[in-house]
Amino acid sequence: MRVGVFICHCGNNIAGTVDVAKVAEEARNMPGVQFATDYMYTCSEPGQEEIKEAIQREQLDRVVVAACSPRMHELTFRRTVEKAGLNRYFFEMANIREHVSWVGEDKDLNTNKAIEAVKLAVEKVKQNKPLFPSSFEVNKRVLVIGGGVAGMQAAIDCAEGGLQVVMVEKSPSIGGMMARLDKTFPTVDCSICILGPKMVDVSQHDNITLHAYSEVEEIKGYVGNYQVKIRKKATYVDWTKCTGCGECTEKCPSKDAYDHFNYGVAPTTAITIPFPQAIPKKATIDPTYCRQFVRGKCGVCAKICPADAIDYEMKDEIVTEEVGAIITASGYGLIDLDRLPEYGGGRYPDVVSGIQYERLLNASGPTEGHILRPSDKEEPKTIVFVSCAGSRDKSIGIPYCSNFCCMYIAKEAILTRDHIPDSKVYVFYMDIRSPGKGYDEFTRRAQEEYGVRYVRGRVARVFPKGKKMIVKGVDTLLGTQIEVEADLVVLATAVTAAPGAPQLAEKLRISYDQHAFYVESHPKLRPVETNTSGVFLAGCCQGPKDIPASVGQGSAAAAKVLSLFSRDMLESDPAVANVNINVCVGCRKCINTCPYGAIEEEELRDGRIVAKVLETVCAGCGVCTSTCPCGAIQLQHFTDNQLLAEVNALCLS
Amino acid sequence: MAKLGYLPKEKLTDFLENLKKKYRIYVPCQDGDAVLFQPFDGEKPLCLDRPATVSPKSVIFPQTDILFSFDYRKSSEDPKQVSIELTENLDFPETVIFGSRPCDAKGFLIYDRPYTQTDMPDIYYKGRREKTTIITLACNYPSPGCFCTSVGGDPADKEGSDILMTDVGTGYFFEAVTAKGEEIVEDAVFEDGSSYQEKAQAAHKAVADLVKKPFDSTEGLPEKLLSLFENDAFWEAEAAKCISCGACTYLCPTCYCFNITDEQAGSKGERIRSWDACMFYHFTLEASGHNPRPLKQQRLKNRVGHKFSYYPKKYEGAIACCGCGRCIRSCPVSVDISEIVAHAQEYKDEPSK
Amino acid sequence: MSVVAGKELRIVGFLCNWCSYGGADTAGVSRFKQPSDLRIIRVPCSGRVDPLFVVKALLNGADGVLVAGCHPNDCHYSEGNFYARRRLEMLKKFLSYMGIDDKRFHYTWVSASEGARWQQVVTDFTKQIHALGPLHQKEEAGD
Amino acid sequence: MTQKKLKEVVQKVLPDVDMVIGYRQGFDPVHATPFFVTRPEQIDELIWNPLCVHNLASYIPSLTTNKKVAVIVKGCDSRAINQYLQENLINRENLVVIGIPCSGVVSVSKVLKAVDHQIIESVSCENHAVTVKTSQGEKKLSVSDVSPDKCKTCLYPTPLVYDHLVGDPITSDKEPESVYDEVRSFEEKSLEDRFQFWKTELDRCIRCYACRNACPMCICQDRCIAESRDPHWVTQKTNQTEKFMYHMIHALHLAGRCVECEECTRVCPMEIPVAKIKKKINMEMDQLFDYKAGLNAEDTPPMYTFKVDEETIEEHEL
Predict the structure, then answer these.
(1) DSSP B310
(2) Contact: D213, B245; criterion CB under 8 Å
(3) Which chain A residue lies closest to B286 (C-alpha atoms)?
C-alpha cells in the first residue's frame, strides 16, 4: 500500500501549537506510508495541486490529510483525490485543528496527539475499499403537505417548474393561518385579498392535484420513489356535486358547533363552509354536532340541498400517490388560553387570543368586522395587548420567542385605533422585536402616530371587576406598579408546533426538536433540507416565522426539489450497509432494528433466508452492523474491521 | 535389563524437587474441577488418581505457538527503504512430563510420524520433543469411556514413555524404558525396585481386563471406513447429536492439526500457530467462501476417518487413536467414537429406513 | 509512540458524526481548552457503536472509553441513539461484574452546538480516568 | 411411569414427524445422550430420568426449515423455544413440542465428584435420588445435592410451551428473587477479587467453543465472529485478553436472549462456570426492562427495541 500524508499548517491555526514538521516526519515512518509532507494551506488551490502531483509522482493509492475537521473539508479533498484518479473513498482526514491545536496548549502533547490522529487515519485508510454510487430513476412528482401560504408557494413554484404536485391539506380549505388574518404587517394589506389569488392559482393549476380535508396516512419508499397513502376524511358531502351555495349552512338547525376556522370566537353550524373565499368552496359536516349523527334524525341539509350532495353514509377513503420528493409545510399551532390562567386565559370570555382578535377585526368574521367583546357584544373602549403570552417562558416549557407577535400586536393595535378612534390601547411587552424591513418603523408608528401606549413590563395578573378586566403589571421603565381597567384583553399566545407534528415527522422519518419543530440539515447552510433525502421543510413547521420568511422557504424548498429533479437518475451514497450472504444466518435482527425499513428478507437458491439491503433506502447509520451478531451486514466505510483498525492503532503497540 | 526403582509416596515431592533443578516439570494438578498439566511449583497438590482433563500435548505442541515475530523497519535516511527483521526462539528448555498416562505417551508417537519422521521435520515440535522426558503412570483402573486395548494399547503400555511408573500401594515402581529414563532413575531418592516388579505386572494384568472393548480389532477397519465414505445416511445418523465443537479434538492426545495466522499491530507482528479442529466449519473454509465440508457429518466423518483410515493407510496401519476416552468423557453430548467405529464395523448394506 | 508517559492515559472516544463530533468541533472553534488524552474515532451514529468496541478497547490497552451521540430524539437517523442507550447501559452495568471498573466507561449525549458541554465532559472524564490510574497490565501473547 | 407415558406419546407422534429428539442411555451408566428417533423400533430405547440434562431444543433451528421435528423439553429447555419464536428462528408448523414437567436433574460432574471420579458401574434413579454403584460400593445421592445451580432456583419446572405434556404440571416453590442471589453475593466481592476470579476461571478456557455450540441461542454457530478474520474481533491467541474477549462476545450477544438453561456451564470440559457471566446480564435485563427471555413468544428482546423515554435509564454523571 502506498499512502500519502499531507499535514496542513492552516497558517498558524495548526502550526502555532503543533510541530507539523515532526508530524510529517513521524508519518513517514508509519507502515504503508509512502510519502508525507506539510503544507501551509492544503485546502488552497496550490495545496490541492500538490496532492494531485504527489499522487502521480509517488503512485499513491491512499491519501490522508491532517488538517481541519472533515465536516469542513472532507468533500473538498475527496474531489481532489478523485480528480487525480483515485476512488474518493481512498481518502481519510485527521482532525488536528478543532480537536488538537485549538483545544490544547502544550505543544509536545499536541504534536503527539496529532501524530496519533494521523496514525489513526492511516490505519483506517489502509482498510478502506473503493465504493461506487449506483443510480436509480426519479419519479418527478412532489407531495406538498399543508396548504398554508408556505405550502401554496412551494406548490405553485414546483408546478410552474413543470412538476406534477400533490397537495394534502388537513382542513376543509387551503389558506392556512394567513387566510384567518385580517390585515398583514407592515403594509396593512388585506390578507385574504393578497392570498386569495394564490389560492385560486393552486386550485386551477393543471399540475396541482389538491386533496383537501385529507391527511398523510403512511409513507413508504425513499428519495425519488415514495409511495404515500392519503386519508381523505369523510365530509358527508359529495364534493363533486356540492356547488358551495351555502343554503345548508343557513338552514342547519344545530347552531352550536365549534368554529375551527374562527377559533371558536362564536359558534357555527354543524355543516359549514369555513369562509367565503374557501378553496375548495364546499360544505363539510362536523358529525360531533350534526343532529343526524348525534340524535340519528334531522336530515334538513339533505332535504334542502339543491345539488343533492349530502351523503351521511360517506366513509374515509384511502388514496395512494407516488412521488419523488416531499415538501412538508405543515404549519404551527398556538397554545391554549387555558395554559395562561394568570392572564385569565380560558376563564374569562373577554380575554382572547391574537388570532381570535384577527377574526373579530375581519369583515367576514363572525362580527362582520365590528370589534365587539365576546361577553356582552359591546364595543370595548380600553383594550390591553399582552405580548409573550407563553413565549420566552421556561416555566411552561416555551423558552423560545414566537417571532412575529410583536409585529401583529402592533398591527392589531393600529387597526383597533382605526376601528374605534376613541379607544385606549395598551401593549404590555418585554422587548419589541421588529428586525424586518420596515418593521421597526411600523411599531414606532403604532406608538407615535396611533398613540398606542407601550408599557415595558410583564403582566402579573388579569382578573374581572364588574364588567371590566383588571390588568395588573409593572412598568419597568418607570419602576412603578400599573393597573389598567380594560374592556378586552388580547393575549399574543405563544406559537407551538402544529398538533400531530411528531407523528407526521415519524412518518417522514425526519427528526424534531424538544418542542416538536422539525430539524433542518444545517441551521445556517441547509435551512430547508432535512436529514432524510428527498424531504424538505417550508414555513413554521421548522420554527415560528412570519409570512415573507415562510413564502421564501416555500420557494426555496421548491427550488431544491426542482434541482433534485433536474436529473433523470439519482446517485445513491455507496456508504451504505452491505450483506455478506456467505455469513448471514438469516436471524432478521437487522431487519427488525433498521430505522429506515431498508432491509428485506431474500431467499437464496438453496432456500436459505438472508438479509438484503435496499441501497437507496439505507441512510448509513450502522445500527444493523452493531446488531448483527455474526458481522454479516457491514456498513461500508465504517465496517467492523475499519473501526477495529482504529481501535488497534490506539490500543495495541 | 531395564533400570528399576522404587519411590515411597512420601518421597515423591523430594524427587520432583531434585528433578526441578535440571528440568522444567509439568505435573497434573487440580485446577477448579479440571485436571491440567501445569509447571511443578512444589505447592499445588498433584492429582494422580485420574487422567488429566486435557492431554499433555500442549507441553510439546502449545495451543498457541509464536513461531516468530517480525518488524518492518524503515531506514532512517530513506523511509522508503523497508527491511523486515525476524526473530524466532528455538532454544527450548529440558522438560519432564510427569504423571501422564500410557495413552498420553502414545499420543506423541502418533505426532512423531508427520512432525519428525519426514524429510521436512517441524523444528518447533522436534525441538521440544527431543528436550522432553516422559514419566508415565500406569493406570490402576480404567476411566469412563477409555478403550486403549481396542486400539492396540494397554493401561501399562511402555511404548512412548521414557519411564513407566506403577502405583504399588505404599509407593511407585519405576521402570526406565529409555536411556533418558535411566538417567532419571539413577536419582539417589530411589530404592531398588526389582522386588516390586511382579506386583506391578499383576496390577497391569488386572486392569487390562477391566478396560471395555467396544471392538476387538482394527483389522480391515481402514478399508471398511473408506467403503462408507459416500454413505451420507450412515454419517448423518452418527453425527445427528454432534454439536461440532472442538472439545474432542482439543482434548485429544493425537489430534495435531493447526492453523497459522499473522497478527500485526503497526510495524510489528507475530506469526502464530494455534490448534485447529476438523470439527470446525472454518477448518476447511476456503478464501473464495466455498467450503468442501459445510456439514457436521462431513466433519465428523473426517475425524473418525483420519484416525482409523487415512492415517493408518499413510503410516503402515498405525491407528491415530490411543483410546484415552477423553473425547467421549468430555463430549457435551456423549458422542462416542468407539461406538461409531463399532457401528462401522458391524455395518451391513441394508437400506436404512 | 503512544501516550506521553506520566502526562497522559489512553482514552478512546467514539463520537457520532452529526452531533458529538460536531460538538467537539464547536469546542475547538470556540477554543475551549481540554486535556489532551482523548483520541477520537468518528462513527456515523452512536447506534453504530457495538458495545464490543468498548470491551475491545478496554481489554487491549485503553484506560478509559467515552461514547457520545446525539441527544435522545435528536438522532440524525431518528432512532440510532435509542438503541445505543440500551446497549451501552447494559454494558455499563455489566463491566464491573467482570472486574473492569465501570467508571472507565462513560456514555453521554452532546449536540453539535454544545461546545462548552463537550469541554466539560472531556475534562471531567479525563480527570476521572486519571484518578483511577492505568488499567491492569495485560499479559503477553501466547499460552 | 413418566418414561412409559413418554413412549406412548412418542408412539402417537412419530408417524407424523421425520424424527423425535429424546434421550437414551449414553456410553456409561451416568451419561444420558441425545437420541434421534426415526423408526418405531427405536422408541423402546428412550429414557427419562434425572440424567437427561441436555437442552434438546438447541437442535431445532437447523432442522425445522425442511423437516418436521418433535422434541422433548423440560421447563428450562422450553424457554428456548419461546425465544426462537420471538426471534422467528423456527417454523412452529414443523415442530411438535413434548413437554415434561421436571423435578430437577443432576449435574454429572457433581455426581462424579461425589464418588471421587471412580468408574461408575450402575446408576438407578427413583424419587428424587440417584444410587450410584462404583467399585468402592454404593452411594445414594439426593438429586437436590447434586443438581446443577439452575435447578436450585428453577421457576419454571413445567414447560411454558408444549403440544403434549407428559405427567402433571409442577409449580415452583422457589423465590423469584433468589434466581439472582448468586449474582448479588458475587458482586459483594471487591473489584479486584472479581477480576482475579474470572482471570483464573477463564485461564482454563481452551476455546473449544463447546459453550457456544451447546447454547440454544448462539444462532451464528459456524459464522461466529470469535473465529472469523472479517470481522477480526479476536486473534487465535489463547492469552487472557482473547479469552476475556471471546466470553464477552458470547455474553453480550446473549443480552436479553439467554434462557438460562446453563448448557454453557454444563458442557464446558474445563469446568468453567460460564453461565455465571450471563446471569448478571439477565439480572440487568430483568431490572432495566422487566424482561426474562423465553417466557412468551410475543415479547421482543430488549436489545432489539427501545422506548423514547426509558424510565429505568438515568443519565450518568461524571
Answers:
(1) I
(2) yes
(3) A582
